[in-house]
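[audit] Reproducing an earlier prediction to check determinism. Same input, same settings, fresh worker. If the C-alpha cells differ from the archived copy the diff job will pick it up downstream; this log only records the rerun itself.
[audit] input (641 residues):
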Amino acid sequence: MRKTLLIVSILALPGRLLAFEAVPLIQVYPDNLKLDTTQKTVDSVNTQTQLKIISSDQIAKSGNSNLSDLLSNQDGVQVIQPSSSSYRPIFSIRGFGDNALTNTAILINGQPYFNPDIGAPLFNVIPLSEIGQIEISPSSNSVLYGDQAVGGVINIITKKPTKKQAQASFSYGSFAARKTRFLLGDVMDNGFGYQLSGSILDTNNYRQHNKERLNNIFMSLFYKDAYFRYNKTNHHLQLPGELNFSQASKNPKQAENSIAYNNQDYDIFQLGYKHNLGENWQGEIDSSLHLMTGAGAYEFSNQSAPFNESRKTFTLQPKVSGILNLKKFSVLPTIGWESYYGEYRYSDSEARQNQHAIYGYFEAPVTSKFTTSFGSRYAKAFYKITGGSQDPRNHALVNELGASYQPTNNWRLFAKLAESYRFPKTDEIMFTANQNPLKSQTGLSYETGINYKNSNFSTTLSLYQLDLKDEILFVPDSGARFGGYNKNLDPTQRLGATASLSITPIQYLQIDSSYSFIKGRFSSGSFNGNEIPYVARNNLRITTKLIPSKSFQILFEGIYTGSRYPINDIKNITSKIGGTTIYNCGLSYDQKHYTISIRANNLANKLYYGYVVTQYQGSGYTNGYYPATGLNLTANLNLKL
C-alpha cells in the first residue's frame, strides 16, 4: 500500500516540474490581505473530486420535512432505518450495510458527530429551514476528516444570520404528524449576532406502538469570528420491533411488542474562534461537547427488560491554514490536531475511548489548469473497558494523493488515491469471539472521473475501487451469547461507477438523473466471491421539476433500489430482498412573506423494508423485517414575519 503511494507520487513529479514555467502566483485572499478560506473555490484550487452541495433554496423547494427524506433522494446515498424513526437513520455511501454508520463521517459545521458506541446519533435535530447547505462527498477522506470517513462525508452547515429575521412554521401530515417551529435572529452593527429557534413534533408514525415526540431548542451566538451554539433535545420513541415475513406481508403496520421504548435527552455545545495570524495565515479552533442520558426497555419472552444509558463525547480541533507563495507557484497547507474523548454507559457496563490525531493536507496549483493535492494523518485510539480483561490500543497512518485538470471552463478531470481507516467502537470491542481484540479497519480507494457543466447541461461520470482489510461487522453465530459477535472480516472489495445527468431542455423543465453500480464482494478468505450483505448492485434515480414561475415548482421522482442480501448475511444463505421502486411528488410556492409546500412519498403505497436483519434462532437462520413507511403526505406552511 505504501509502495503504491510512493510510486504514484514519483510519477506525478515530472508533470509538475515540466509545468513550473507557466505557473502564476495564486491569490486566494482579498486585497486587504485578510485570509478568507471560502475564496479557495477557484477552479484550479479545488481537488475535491465529487463534492455535491445542496443549497438552502433546494432544501426549501424539495418539500421534505426532515433530513432523512432529503438525503434519501441524493446521488449515491442510501438510507437504512432500523429504529422505525426518521430521526435516527443510518446513511450508506459506497456500499455498506449494517456497518454503514461507522463508515460514513457525519459533520455538523465541520465538527464530527458520532458516538463512541455503534448507536446512531439523533441526526434530524436540526430543522431543514436552519440549514444553510449540505455538502456530500462520496469519497474516502480520512486524511482530512479522520475516523469513519471511509465511504464518504456528509457535512451539515447551519445558517448564520445576516439580518433581522422572524419565522414561524407549521406542518401536518399522515399518521397524525404535527410540527410547530419558530425562529428569531438578528445581527448588530458591532458584529454581534444571535439566532434562537424551537420546535415541537408529535407523530404516531406508520406502525403501531411507534409514537414519537421530539422537543428541540437551538441557540446560536456570534461575535465577529467567534461563535457559540447550544442545542437541547428531548426524544421519546416507542419501538414496535421486528416482524417475520408472514407478519410483515399480512399487516406491516402491526407491532411485535407493546413494551419496548427508548427515551433520550441531549445537550450539545459547540464553541469556536478564528484569528488571522498574518497576511496569509489563519488559525482556527473548534470544540464540542455532546451529552446524552436515556432510559428504555426491550421485551424478551413477554417480559420487560429495562435499561439506563448515558453518553458523553468531547472534541477539540485546532488547525492552521494559509498560503505559501514560493518562487514559481503557491501551496495551500492545512495542518491540524484532533482530540476526541467518548464515554458510553449501558446499565452496569461502561466503556471509554480516546482518540488523538495529527494531519497535514496541501493543495498545490501547478498551473492555472492543473492542481495536485497530498496529505497524511496519524491517529491513535485508546480504550478502557469496565470489567474487561484488556484495554486495547489501535493506531493508523493514512495518506492521500489527488489531481484535478481543467482544460476548459466546462470540463474537469480528476483522480485520487486515498487510504482510509476506522477504529473499533467501544461496544464492538466488548462483544468479540473468544474476546479476541479487534484490529483497526484499513482501506485503499482508487477514484477517477470527469464532469462537464454549462448553463443548461451538466454530467459526471466517476469510477472507483475500494479495497478494505479487516472490515468490522457483527455477524450471526449459533454459539454466541447474543446470537453473534463482532469480527474483522476477510478482505472485501467494492467496485463502483456513478453517472449523473442534469438537463434543462426548455425554460420551465429540469430533469435530474443518476445511476450507481456497486459490486461489493469478499475478495479472499472463506467467503471469497460472496456478496457483501445489504449492498444493492443497481440504484437509479430520476427527478423531473416543472418550474412554471420563479415562485412555483412541481416535482416528480422515482427511486429504484436493486435486490440485496439482508444485513449480516455474509454467508449468502437466505433469500435476497427484491428490488423496489418508490415514487414521490411535491410542490412548493414561495412568496416574500410565506412558503407553502406539499410532499407525498411512496405514492403507490409500496411495501418495502427500511431494515432486514439475519439472525440465528433455534436450529437455523431467519430474517427480521422492519417495514418502511407506506403512502404518506406532509403539508408545510412557513411564515416570514
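[audit] rerun output stored. Observation attached for the diff report: Residues 1-47 have pLDDT under 50 and may be disordered.
[audit] end
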